[in-house]
């Protein structure tokens, strides 16, 4: 089968590989019907994910059809359409039992697919702990509607869940990339008083303005003054930092009102400075990244009910055989691309 492979730093290649086989009774083999490219794939390519193993098939955003299951798999069976979770988790350890699945202590626990073990930018993928890692897609939900459930939408859902949003709040979301938009969609489900999105790309600003009419939009340069002018207590009640750019962490805490929650969803390429003397007395609560992706069934129900729709994010479509082209487009942010669908 064809599998897009991490060869070495800076180099991915479409290679012919044998089809994956069951290794454990809890595994399933999934035929990938649709996949996508995530910014984290680019982080692997650029060498900023040291635990990524050269030779592995990349890709961790996908949906497919169960082809085969191990004897211990109970929740899915061959023929089921499923969303694949970016995270592998056992469902039984201390962290899993508390819903902190990102820190599952299983050897394969956490982000393994397309990083430490073969992922899904391929025709087939082996999913360990399939009872946890696969969620059946309801009949009324298409592959495109379900494509982001296991990764960026799970991240947005988790970010909104842990941010303690109330109907009184002004929520600032920094970054309107794909994960920023997913965080926005899930924040909208909480019905806060105001949502402000901060973004620098004119194309992305246009996208937000076109699709989400009630959302206020500002730029990084104007953000601090804008948030002061459009909030009730001298800053945002909740800030989600989803940009991960050079100065966006500073912007995040500066835009927060005293006693706010600042949720850092972004993955940075460099260490960030936490200037405690400058923020002394602001009494902020920081929550940091690493999605606990255990809400996929609920997210799929919300999609089925028409409450979340990420299909406008899919701006381009490519077959697996042309994945090189898709990467070039996504990496260079050409042609107004937000997300590509591969399949
Ligand atoms: Zn991802
Ligand atoms: Zn676990």
From TrEMBL:
One Pfam assignment: ADH_N
UniProt entry keywords in alphabetical sequence: Metal-binding, Oxidoreductase, Zinc
Keyword Zinc listed: yes
InterPro entries given in the database record: ADH-like_C, ADH-like_N, ADH_Zn_CS, GroES-like_sf, NAD(P)-bd_dom_sf
Domain called Alcohol dehydrogenase-like N-terminal: residue spans: 26-138
Coiled-coil intervals: none
PROSITE patterns: ADH_ZINC
Named cofactor requirement(s): Zn(2+)
Domain Alcohol dehydrogenase-like C-terminal residue range list: 191-287
Highest taxon of the lineage: Bacteria
GO molecular function, one term: oxidoreductase activity
Family stated for the protein in its record: Belongs to the zinc-containing alcohol dehydrogenase family.
Record protein name field: Alcohol dehydrogenase GroES domain protein
Organism: Phocaeicola salanitronis (strain DSM 18170 / JCM 13657 / CCUG 60908 / BL78) (Bacteroides salanitronis)
Lineage: Bacteria, Pseudomonadati, Bacteroidota, Bacteroidia, Bacteroidales
């Amino acid at each position: 089968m064809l599998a897009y492979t991490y060869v070495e730093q800076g180099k991915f290649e479409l290679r012919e590989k044998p089809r994956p086989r069951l290794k454990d009774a809890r595994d399933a083999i999934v035929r990938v019907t649709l996949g996508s490219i995530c910014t984290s794939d680019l982080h692997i390519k650029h060498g900023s994910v040291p635990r990524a193993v050269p030779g592995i098939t990349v890709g961790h955003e996908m949906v497919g059809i169960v082809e085969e299951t191990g004897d211990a798999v109970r929740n899915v069976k061959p023929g089921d359409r499923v969303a694949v979770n970016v995270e592998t988790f056992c469902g039984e350890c201390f962290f899993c039992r508390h819903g902190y699945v990102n820190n599952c202590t299983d050897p394969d626990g956490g982000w393994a697919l397309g990083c430490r073990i073969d992922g899904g930018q391929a025709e087939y993928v082996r999913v360990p702990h399939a009872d946890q890692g696969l969620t059946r897609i309801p009949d009324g939900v298409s592959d495109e509607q379900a494509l982001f459930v296991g990764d960026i939408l799970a991240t947005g859902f988790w970010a909104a869940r842990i941010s303690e949003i109330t109907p009184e709040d002004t929520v600032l979301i920094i970054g309107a990339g794909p994960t920023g938009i997913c965080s926005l969609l899930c924040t909208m489900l909480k019905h806060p008083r105001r949502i402000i999105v901060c973004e620098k790309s004119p194309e992305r600003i246009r996208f937000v303005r076109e699709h989400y009419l009630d959302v206020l939009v500002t730029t990084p340069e104007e953000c601090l003054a804008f948030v002061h002018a459009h909030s009730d207590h001298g800053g945002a009640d909740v800030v989600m930092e989803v940009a991960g750019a050079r100065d966006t962490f500073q912007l995040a805490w500066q835009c927060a009102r005293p006693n706010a929650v600042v949720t850092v969803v972004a993955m940075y390429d460099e260490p960030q400075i936490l200037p405690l003397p400058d923020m002394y007395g602001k009494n902020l609560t920081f929550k940091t990244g690493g999605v606990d992706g255990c809400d996929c069934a609920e997210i799929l129900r919300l999609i089925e009910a028409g409450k979340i729709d990420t299909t406008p994010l899919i701006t381009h479509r490519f077959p697996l055989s042309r994945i090189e082209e898709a990467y070039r487009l996504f990496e260079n942010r050409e042609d107004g691309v937000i997300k590509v669908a591969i399949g």
